[in-house]
């Protein structure tokens, strides 16, 4: 590094930095002048988010540098019009991080384009084909992108897309989880299997591509929520709702956006489907709908490594989706549960990070089975009571609670949901529980275990559904029973939250019931969240008896 006559920084005696173009968790991009060839270039300074990585993890820092160099050199060998061209790599040796010199693409990014509004289906399909072509070229060279999103699609002045940041995202595996509990980037476009800890493959990049096209044509992301934690939960737990503005592109997107990677079309099929939309404005009728996802199970979590997964807070009411894969099963690997646990550590109020991300309030697509037929249960109960006149007081009480089961954030509502869970599972010990007005999601402890749990969700009007997540409590979290919780305090707690959280008119509200933690010496507690339309969120914290212990207003 040296300084030019103007005093501006010069890299490797050749590349003079002119202006900062952008930056993120993995470094900063500059517009620069190549002093040898007298042309403008883009220069990316690649560095981990934790500047102290080399001190506490020198081996990790060395592997990071080596991987960046390896993938940048591989990318430099790809000659494709939709792949950013690598001109040069500046390597300062051990103890430094590389600089990557690339072509300067002058038309802004797709993210910039989408700020002006959504794209139409035909335009979106054409763009998707070109980005897919870039991915196929990279996959053929053994490179996965791992971070396909609008900000990483640059546009030439003629509108042609160029995919950038290849390989840079791949180094995230080395640095995504650090001792500071940080995570790089946002989960908006990550495939669910990658969030769950699996390395994924080309099919994971295709998910990200389809999600990006969905956001482009709809003008909103279907699973983005008010916090990174909630978005992670939505990608893991919820189906993608069918798009409303995608026209003939809708079916193509829904074929790709399924949880099970083998159930997604391959790149050749996807290109053919996109071509049909781009060229004729219709999807070929000869193609059948995608098959139901087969069982997909990631590596089982290891108790010593795992930490609690999310309970799935979201910001919209669930609606039924026609594309639910009933056979889908996801067991979080140790990496996946650590990732989610670090987010919980960092983003939930016990940590210092606010974790807020751009919010959206699209319709949620969490699905459930149809309401169970309870006629046999009623007959059994009547038989036990020697008759069928329906006069049993306990049954009347059940019916009374069901009548109030329209808002689970009420004493009667939460009691009815918990009662249904215990009846369905035969268990009464829990990890974290998340409650929204129309559904409750709970980590239900496996019988006889203090760490293993299954995820269950209760939906208003539809009953209990077993979820796809099976994982482990860790990080000091302890299972709990709910006998000591005073649910009758909920109305007063929400009233106090509305007065003190500085949210105004709340667009969403939910609560977390958190189990005790012996590492942090924290008892069981209730946390109430209010969020407005602009993702401004505040929370109120109370003990199990409903006594307020902390109030954190929105900024």
Automatic annotation (TrEMBL):
<feature type="region of interest" description="Disordered">
    <location>
        <begin position="282"/>
        <end position="328"/>
    </location>
</feature>
<feature type="domain" description="Protein kinase">
    <location>
        <begin position="15"/>
        <end position="274"/>
    </location>
</feature>
<keyword id="KW-0067">ATP-binding</keyword>
<dbReference type="InterPro" id="IPR017441">
    <property type="entry name" value="Protein_kinase_ATP_BS"/>
</dbReference>
<feature type="binding site">
    <location>
        <position position="44"/>
    </location>
    <ligand>
        <name>ATP</name>
    </ligand>
</feature>
<feature type="region of interest" description="Disordered">
    <location>
        <begin position="353"/>
        <end position="411"/>
    </location>
</feature>
<protein>
    <recommendedName>
        <fullName>non-specific serine/threonine protein kinase</fullName>
        <ecNumber>2.7.11.1</ecNumber>
    </recommendedName>
</protein>
<dbReference type="Pfam" id="PF00069">
    <property type="entry name" value="Pkinase"/>
</dbReference>
<dbReference type="InterPro" id="IPR000719">
    <property type="entry name" value="Prot_kinase_dom"/>
</dbReference>
<keyword id="KW-0723">Serine/threonine-protein kinase</keyword>
<dbReference type="GO" id="GO:0016301">
    <property type="term" value="F:kinase activity"/>
</dbReference>
<dbReference type="InterPro" id="IPR011009">
    <property type="entry name" value="Kinase-like_dom_sf"/>
</dbReference>
<keyword id="KW-0808">Transferase</keyword>
<keyword id="KW-0547">Nucleotide-binding</keyword>
<dbReference type="InterPro" id="IPR008271">
    <property type="entry name" value="Ser/Thr_kinase_AS"/>
</dbReference>
<feature type="compositionally biased region" description="Basic and acidic residues">
    <location>
        <begin position="375"/>
        <end position="396"/>
    </location>
</feature>
<feature type="compositionally biased region" description="Low complexity">
    <location>
        <begin position="353"/>
        <end position="374"/>
    </location>
</feature>
<keyword id="KW-0418">Kinase</keyword>
């Amino acid at each position: 590094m040296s300084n030019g006559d103007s005093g501006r920084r010069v890299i490797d005696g050749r590349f003079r930095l002119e202006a900062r173009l952008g930056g993120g968790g993995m470094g900063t991009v500059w517009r620069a002048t190549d002093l040898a060839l007298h042309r403008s270039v883009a220069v990316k300074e690649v560095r981990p988010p934790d500047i102290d990585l080399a001190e506490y993890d020198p081996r990790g820092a060395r592997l990071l540098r080596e991987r960046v160099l390896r993938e940048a050199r591989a990318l430099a060998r790809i000659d494709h019009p939709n792949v950013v061209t690598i001109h040069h790599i500046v390597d300062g040796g051990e103890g430094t991080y590389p600089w990557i010199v690339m072509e300067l693409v002058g038309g802004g990014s797709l993210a910039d384009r989408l700020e002006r509004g959504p794209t139409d289906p035909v335009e979106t399909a054409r763009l998707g084909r070109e980005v897919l072509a870039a991915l196929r070229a990279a996959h053929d060279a053994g490179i996965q992108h791992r971070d396909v999103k609008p900000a990483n699609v640059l546009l030439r002045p003629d509108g042609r897309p160029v995919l950038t940041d290849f390989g840079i995202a791949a180094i995230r595996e080395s640095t995504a989880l650090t001792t500071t509990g940080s995570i790089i980037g946002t989960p908006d476009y990550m495939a669910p299997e990658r969030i769950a800890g699996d390395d994924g493959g080309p099919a994971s990049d295709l998910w990200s591509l389809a999600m990006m096209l969905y956001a482009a044509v709809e003008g909103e992301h279907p699973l983005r929520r008010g916090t990174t934690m909630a978005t992670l939960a939505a990608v893991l737990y919820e189906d993608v709702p069918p798009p409303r503005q995608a026209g003939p592109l809708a079916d193509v997107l829904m074929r790709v956006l399924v949880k099970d990677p083998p159930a997604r079309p391959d790149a050749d099929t996807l290109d053919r489907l996109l071509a049909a939309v781009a060229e004729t404005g219709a999807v070929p009728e000869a193609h059948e709908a995608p098959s139901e996802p087969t069982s997909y199970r990631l590596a089982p979590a290891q108790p010593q490594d795992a930490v609690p997964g999310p309970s799935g807070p979201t910001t919209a009411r669930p609606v039924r989706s026609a594309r639910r894969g009933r056979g889908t099963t996801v067991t979080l690997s140790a990496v996946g549960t650590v990732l989610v646990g670090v987010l919980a550590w960092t983003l939930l109020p016990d940590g210092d990070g606010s974790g807020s991300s751009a919010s959206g309030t699209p319709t949620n697509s969490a699905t459930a089975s149809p309401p169970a037929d309870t006629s046999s249960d009623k007959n059994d109960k009547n038989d036990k009571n020697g008759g069928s006149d329906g006069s049993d007081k306990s049954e009347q009480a059940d019916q009374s609670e069901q009548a109030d089961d329209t808002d689970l954030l009420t004493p009667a509502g939460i009691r009815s949901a918990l009662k249904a869970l215990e009846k369905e599972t035969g268990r009464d010990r829990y990890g974290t529980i998340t409650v929204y007005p129309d559904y409750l999601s709970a980590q239900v402890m496996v019988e006889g275990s203090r760490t293993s749990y299954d995820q269950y969700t209760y939906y208003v009007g539809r009953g209990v559904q077993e979820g796809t997540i099976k994982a482990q409590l860790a990080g000091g979290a302890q299972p709990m029973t709910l006998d000591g919780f005073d649910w009758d305090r909920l109305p007063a707690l929400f009233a106090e939250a509305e007065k003190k959280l500085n949210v105004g008119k709340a667009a969403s509200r939910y609560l977390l019931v958190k189990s005790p933690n012996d590492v942090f010496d924290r008892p069981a507690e209730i946390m109430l969240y209010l969020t407005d339309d602009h993702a401004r969120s505040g929370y109120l914290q109370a003990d199990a008896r409903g006594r307020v212990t902390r109030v954190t207003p929105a900024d």
